[in-house]
Write a structure and sequence with these properties.
With 495 residues, the protein is α/β, with parallel strands linked by helices. Helix 1 runs antiparallel to helix 2 and helix 1 packs parallel to helix 3. The protein is built from seven helices and 38 strands. The protein has a 25-stranded mixed sheet that branches. Strands 4-7-9-11 form a four-stranded parallel sheet, with no helix packed on it. Strands 14-16-19 form a three-stranded parallel sheet, with no helix packed on it. It comes from Vanderwaltozyma polyspora (strain ATCC 22028 / DSM 70294 / BCRC 21397 / CBS 2163 / NBRC 10782 / NRRL Y-8283 / UCD 57-17) (Kluyveromyces polysporus). Belongs to the SPS2 family.
């Protein structure tokens, strides 16, 4: 709402009375400017709403005057301007051109005209189909909207020697020749979204960047990501397909919407020493993971096709969705000793070196189904009291005891999702249970184990096609877990 002239004179008087020393001279000048503008152009400050009743105006004036008097010498320019949205311009020298909602830049001349006239651009700058190798933002200090540079195969360098702030998203999309980005004095930006900049290998960022809410960096040649040491909370943290990126280390404490790391360098190390909470976590293709303070994941957490030998997160207490540990071929040791509740399913599949599933010693409840598959010899969940979904178990071990799952000692199973299927070697046993865990029926079948033949490649090496079949099988079962809520766990155990 635009303010009436009476209110502005009140604000001016209140500020002038409160700020009577030289240190607060700026505040007095601001108030005087507001008052003078209201006198010279009263209509510009009059309310344009249909509700211009005297009573409402007096209420507003009383409220704002009380605010001014209450805050006194702590009042800043932003506090005054907050009451004058879109009416009192802190930089009236800007031309109408600089205030345009969107500037489309396609040539060096377009960019020169913009930076020559506008130290501040009150809108979005969209650089597309640019005809030169260098983008130089020159004297532009602030862009209140987005900075989008895309679809320009000619661009090799982007330089912003004066740019301090981007109010929206800083996007780089489909810049296939870009090698260097220098935004070294930029300290404020809302989101970073860099995709398909495949040979970008040099980035200069300020170490004091703030206000960031989202970071997406995909398909670059960066070997390290720096400049985010003072970012502690993000909505989105997605780093993927950066083939030379060998380490990610941040001081993030919370990721509130999406945390995704995948398809970077094979030896990539993921270090998050301060991370305490994430909405969800997906980690693929890493050689080590370090989450020493992680306490809670609100949705799902998945570790897929990593190369690490150990996965230890003893501080974790709860997972709000599905916990998946899948296709980690070198994994030998896991420690989730603090987890007491998994609200979704539990999927542990095809971790060939994981011999015992005993890394959830305090787990009490699983809200979905369980799916175990691999070479494990034993399962041990001493505190587990309830599994709301079904169970499907499959192991190649000759020592796995299926009776832990199919023959409950008390006569009542902890599985309440309808079915338990445990295959041990050539012997498969299935039982059905009701919602109270009572066994309804059971069956035991002896089957011949099918051996998948190996193929020879052109170099004479043995190649098995079992991997793709496993993947298809796993995805089918996972969909069953997530969508139907009744899953089986198969254990191929030779007894």
């Amino acid at each position: 709402m635009k303010l009436p002239i009476l209110l502005l004179s009140t604000i001016a008087t209140a500020i002038a009375l409160e700020f009577d020393d030289q240190e607060n001279l700026n505040a007095q000048v601001i108030s005087q400017n507001i008052f003078e503008n209201s006198r010279s152009d009263p209509l510009s400050f009059e309310s344009k709403d249909n509700e211009n009743s005297l009573q409402k105006r007096m209420v507003n004036e009383t409220k704002y005057t009380a605010y001014i008097l209450e805050h006194g010498s702590n009042l800043e320019i932003e506090d005054v301007l907050e009451f004058l949205p879109n009416n009192y311009d802190s930089d009236p020298s800007l031309s109408a051109y600089c205030r345009e909602a969107k500037h489309v830049i396609q040539s060096k001349q377009d960019l020169f005209d913009l930076q020559a006239q506008c130290p501040t651009v009150k809108g979005t700058v969209h650089i597309i189909d640019y005809d030169s190798q260098e983008v130089n933002l020159g004297s532009i200090e602030k862009i209140t909207g987005d900075l989008l540079i895309e679809d320009s195969p000619e661009i090799v360098r982007i330089i912003a020697p004066a740019l301090k702030e981007v109010g929206g998203t800083f996007s780089l999309h489909s810049l296939t020749s870009l090698v260097l980005l220098d935004v070294g004095i930029m300290t404020k930006v809302k989101a970073i979204d860099w995709k398909v900049v495949p040979i970008l290998n040099t980035v200069s960022l300020n170490d004091n960047i703030e206000n960031l809410e989202s970071i997406v960096i995909s398909d670059t040649s960066l070997s390290e990501i720096e400049g985010f040491d003072k970012i502690y909370e993000l909505e989105i943290f997605n780093i993927n397909n950066n083939r030379f990126l060998e380490i990610i280390r941040t001081n993030l404490k919370q990721v509130k919407t999406q945390f995704t790391i995948h398809a970077n360098a094979k030896e990539m190390q993921l270090e998050m020493p301060e991370l305490e909470f994430a909405e969800n976590i997906t980690v693929r293709d890493t050689s080590s993971v370090y989450f020493p303070k992680l306490e809670r994941v609100a949705s799902s957490m998945e570790f897929i096709e990593n190369l690490f030998t150990e996965l230890e997160i003893p501080t974790l207490t709860a997972v709000g969705g599905t916990l998946g540990i899948i296709d980690n071929q070198n994994l030998k040791s896991v420690n989730f000793s603090g987890v007491t509740n998994i609200q979704g399913g539990l999927m542990i599949s095809n971790n060939e070196r994981l011999e015992t599933l005993d890394f959830l010693p305090t787990l009490k409840q699983i809200g979905g189904a369980i799916f175990f598959e691999g070479r494990f010899q034993d399962t041990d969940f001493p505190e587990l009291k309830l599994v709301k979904g079904s169970a499907y178990i499959n192991s190649n071990s000759e020592t796995l005891d299926c009776s832990k799952w199919t023959t409950p000692i008390s006569g009542r199973s902890i599985i309440r999702g309808g079915k338990i299927n445990c295959t041990s070697g050539r012997k498969q046993k299935s039982i059905s249970v009701n919602e109270n865990g009572d066994v309804i029926q059971g069956s035991e079948v002896v089957t011949e184990t099918e051996v998948v033949p190996e193929k020879k490649n052109s170099y004479g090496s043995s190649v098995s096609n079992s991997s793709s079949m496993k993947t298809i099988s796993q995805m089918s079962v996972l969909l069953w877990i997530l969508v139907v809520g009744a899953v089986t766990i198969t254990s191929n155990i030779a007894i």
